[in-house]
Amino acid sequence: MRYIKVIRISGSYFAREFEKSEKSRKAVKKREVDEKTVAEQFLKGDATVRVIFEDNDRKPIDLSYESDEDKIKRYLGPKFLENY
Fold first, then answer.
1. Residue 59 DSSP label
2. Residue 84's pLDDT is what?
3. Model-level pTM?
4. Which of 21, 42, 50, 79 is at a distance of 20 to 30 A from 5, taking alpha carbons?
5. Quick check: is 67 in a domain?
């Protein structure tokens, strides 16, 4: 599963992207997801998280269970580490 974390000035949220058919106006739809759900899937190794900086021109960062622990802790939080 692929989740996204959108970081903006007013806060951040987790979402899941759904691709719709070509006929729809918006090809990609986002639905907010609870952080606990994302953390559970991430720790199982079933999910990746793309960190998007909405108010900044930084490139998105893709994180998986095998990513560097410092990056996971910095961008996702300590709940996404096994020894939390």
1. P
2. 57
3. 0.82
4. 21
5. yes
